[in-house]
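Here is the promised in-class demo. Please do not try to memorize the tokens; focus on the logic of going from shape to residues.
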């Protein structure tokens, strides 16, 4: 695929994001209170401004920033966490999200390779809506889909556009010379083939599998694992 394929996919995805955002602008306070709970006062304006229900997060707002990153790291998540530091803007870099920032470095120096710029993305399709855990995230998604007219179709549409964007992006990177790396990181129990983006398996090397959730999680080691993966690939 060409740069134009990536640009077109990014435009379509951005339009789907804008449609979701608009759908939240007039949502009732009672719905947001049920959704956000104790975080209503702190987070409700963010939700009104940006909405929720995005499968893919961390994509640059500008297409030229897609071409600037040398390597892409896609983390397979489960749901966006709900807490005081939650970020609802889907364009916000993961390095700006409190939950991920300590584990991620956007610039790395790899022996024998040199300095590389990394772009971190996260794909979350068990639930696209924030929640304190996976069960409550799915409950929150059901709530928002039922209370906001047309939201369910918009969430499904943006998931399809996000999938197309990832495939176009990975294909384009594979055609560059020197080739840029598209690295996938999964939780030990979450294989790529069950993620809803199984087609990426043919465009990337075998995923890095590590413990991302629960006790003993290895999140702080993500960047080092990615560095070793890039160093070992041709």
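The designed amino acids, position by position:
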């Amino acid at each position: 695929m060409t740069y134009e394929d990536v640009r077109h996919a990014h435009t379509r995805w951005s339009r789907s994001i804008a449609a979701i955002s608009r759908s939240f602008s007039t949502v009732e306070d009672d719905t947001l209170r049920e959704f956000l709970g104790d975080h209503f006062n702190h987070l409700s304006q963010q939700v009104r401004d940006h909405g929720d229900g995005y499968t893919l997060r961390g994509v640059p707002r500008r297409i030229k920033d897609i071409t600037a990153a040398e390597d892409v790291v896609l983390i397979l998540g489960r749901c966006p966490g709900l807490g005081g530091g939650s970020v609802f803007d889907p364009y916000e870099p993961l390095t700006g999200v409190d939950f991920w920032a300590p584990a991620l470095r956007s610039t790395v120096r790899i022996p024998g390779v040199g300095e590389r710029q990394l772009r971190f993305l996260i794909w979350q399709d068990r639930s696209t809506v924030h929640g304190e855990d996976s069960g409550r995230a799915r409950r929150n998604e059901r709530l928002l889909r039922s209370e906001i007219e047309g939201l369910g179709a918009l969430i499904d549409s943006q998931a399809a556009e996000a999938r197309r964007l990832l495939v176009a992006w990975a294909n384009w990177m594979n055609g560059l010379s020197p080739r840029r790396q598209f690295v996938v990181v999964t939780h030990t129990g979450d294989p790529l083939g069950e993620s809803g983006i199984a087609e990426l398996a043919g465009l990337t090397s075998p995923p890095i599998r590590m413990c991302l959730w629960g006790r003993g999680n290895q999140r702080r080691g993500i960047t080092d694992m990615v560095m070793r993966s890039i160093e070992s690939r041709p």
